[in-house]
Amino acid sequence: MKKIRSDSLSFYRGTIYAGTNPKIRIYEKVKEIKARLEKGQEITPYEKGLIKSGKSHTRFEFEIRDCKKTLKEVSENPESFASYYDRLEFFDFKENNDSGILQILYKYINRKFRNDLEKYKNHALVDEIKAKYINLVKEWFKEKEPFKKNAI
């Protein structure tokens, strides 16, 4: 993750926490939902569908303090927050069929060898995450219509 100091990077119960403002959280959503079910908490029909799918769903969350934007501004321009996803750096090591976030080790790699890692960066994945975020925000506001004249 770019511009994230290693002293603000931590791991707790399968969740990666990085940065302070914004604070980035990365975790397995299905695992989080199942943990809530074990505690007897209710889940939504959407969350039930995620569990039934049997697929892995990685959630990326950004907590931004002192945003200085209204909800209406966000609804009109969700792209304004998409740049936060540029902080994510994914490496795709096809040889061992694995992908990962290399932040912790990256700082220990000699600068002259870091260029060798560039070929493994998966920029397309970050672009895909950003596009999905933008589309989901637009869909949510279209569905909820909070700024319609007679909206509750």
Question: How would you sum up this structure, described in words?
Answer:
The longest helix has 22 residues. It is globular and about 55 Å long. The strands form two sheets. It has a four-stranded antiparallel beta sheet. A two-stranded antiparallel ribbon has the order 5-6. The termini are far apart. The protein has seven helices and six strands, in the order E-E-E-H-H-E-H-H-E-E-H-H-H. It is of the alpha+beta class. The protein folds into two domains: 66 residues, no CATH class; 86 residues, no CATH class.
Based on DSSP secondary structure assignment, what is the total number of beta strands? Answer: 6
Order of helices and strands: EEEHHEHHEEHHH
The radius of gyration over CA amounts to: 18 Å
Number of contiguous helices: 7
> What structural class do the secondary elements suggest?
alpha+beta
Rounded mean pLDDT is: 81
Question: Taking strands numbered 1, 2, ... along the chain, how are they ordered across the largest sheet?
Answer: 1-2-3-4
Compute the number of structural domains: 2
Outline type: globular
Distance between the termini: 40 Å
Strand content: 15-25%
